[in-house]
Amino acid sequence: MSGAYEGVGPEKTAEIAAKVEAFVRDVIVPYETDPRQDQHGPTDELVAEMKGKARAAGILTPHILPDGRHLSQRETAAVLKKSGLSILGPLAVNTNAPDEGNMFLLGKVGSPEIKERFLKPLVEGHGRSAFFMTEPADEDGAGSDPSMMKTTCRLDGNHWVINGRKKFITGAEGAIVGIVMAKSEATDGTGGACMFLVDLPDPAIRITRVLETIDDSMPGGHAEIEIDNLRVPADQMLGVAGEGFKYAQIRLSPARLSHCMRWYGAAVRANEIATDYANRRKAFGKPLVDHEGVGFMLADNLIDLKQAELMIDWCADVLDTGELGTAESSMAKVAVSEALSRVADRCVQVMGGTGITRDTMVEKFYREIRCFRIYDGPTEVHKWSLAKKIKRDWTRAQAG
């Protein structure tokens, strides 16, 4: 698993994407009413069953090839958009968050030993992972700003000892692999932000509660965590000491875009359901779609979906050049999350009372896509980051 991203070309990409779409629509959509789901996501039993069917169909982890090569970001977009046509789709084919982003990071930074021990089981779909970065706001911990990290690590012989609290850790309950981010204050060359790979569960990593949130699609939900004297062997550090913030950006830039890809698929499906409803349902002597108030909302959906698609592909092209693409991924995250949120909202409105019931998936799509505007940094944080870049660029231009 080299972490290289040579790509496979348009024909092979189209073939993979078509297989994923057919599998999601034909096999996974019927699971949407499966009772093995609660307020903290699908059960591990349900996920394992769906992954088994994806494995049998030859499309498990479709963005990573059997030889370890990763599809290009543009090619990944074509595949992940199709996986998102059902909320359960990314879980079934192993393109879901946080696993997809964690696999990306380990493929880029992990040593051969770390890839074999921690990455391989994730790629093969034998378990889930969690990314322990975000911290409680009431302690002024790291949220959208990783530099506020309060969780500490110190070297003790050939182990690192980690202490701290984390919050909004998606999928921690039930995960087999954890990536823990902490900060060392050492001045001997081991200082700065660090990342560590840990086997889960571990008695030193305690889930204090799983939060009640408006989304419920991610297994294990979003947890609060206490880390009490967690001892990690030195060879389980990801990369080198002090580079944790750099690694976070390596992960977060493409991860933001992956969210855009998956939720694009969800918005497409929501729009399909609303469009079908508007053409079948009649009011005041004609189909709803023939009323301008409804037809125009569906037209606006097409516009927003096309703009979102173009933004995803543009940002993917930037990342495929090898650039970190932090500004571009921020722009994509803002534009796509806001556009898809408008699409989901209009779908509810088009369907009226039916749109707020659980008789269709539109209500769930609405809740899940609304959360997308918060995941991996709220809209306002990304706009603030872009505004700072505008000022920096202007200052440099004046000086030069």
Automatic annotation (TrEMBL):
<protein>
    <submittedName>
        <fullName>Acyl-CoA dehydrogenase family protein</fullName>
    </submittedName>
</protein>
<keyword id="KW-0274">FAD</keyword>
<dbReference type="InterPro" id="IPR037069">
    <property type="entry name" value="AcylCoA_DH/ox_N_sf"/>
</dbReference>
<keyword id="KW-0560">Oxidoreductase</keyword>
<keyword id="KW-0285">Flavoprotein</keyword>
<dbReference type="InterPro" id="IPR009075">
    <property type="entry name" value="AcylCo_DH/oxidase_C"/>
</dbReference>
<dbReference type="InterPro" id="IPR046373">
    <property type="entry name" value="Acyl-CoA_Oxase/DH_mid-dom_sf"/>
</dbReference>
<feature type="domain" description="Acyl-CoA dehydrogenase/oxidase C-terminal">
    <location>
        <begin position="242"/>
        <end position="389"/>
    </location>
</feature>
<dbReference type="InterPro" id="IPR006089">
    <property type="entry name" value="Acyl-CoA_DH_CS"/>
</dbReference>
<dbReference type="Pfam" id="PF00441">
    <property type="entry name" value="Acyl-CoA_dh_1"/>
</dbReference>
<dbReference type="InterPro" id="IPR006091">
    <property type="entry name" value="Acyl-CoA_Oxase/DH_mid-dom"/>
</dbReference>
<dbReference type="InterPro" id="IPR009100">
    <property type="entry name" value="AcylCoA_DH/oxidase_NM_dom_sf"/>
</dbReference>
<dbReference type="InterPro" id="IPR036250">
    <property type="entry name" value="AcylCo_DH-like_C"/>
</dbReference>
<comment type="similarity">
    <text>Belongs to the acyl-CoA dehydrogenase family.</text>
</comment>
<dbReference type="Pfam" id="PF02770">
    <property type="entry name" value="Acyl-CoA_dh_M"/>
</dbReference>
<dbReference type="InterPro" id="IPR050741">
    <property type="entry name" value="Acyl-CoA_dehydrogenase"/>
</dbReference>
<feature type="domain" description="Acyl-CoA oxidase/dehydrogenase middle">
    <location>
        <begin position="131"/>
        <end position="213"/>
    </location>
</feature>
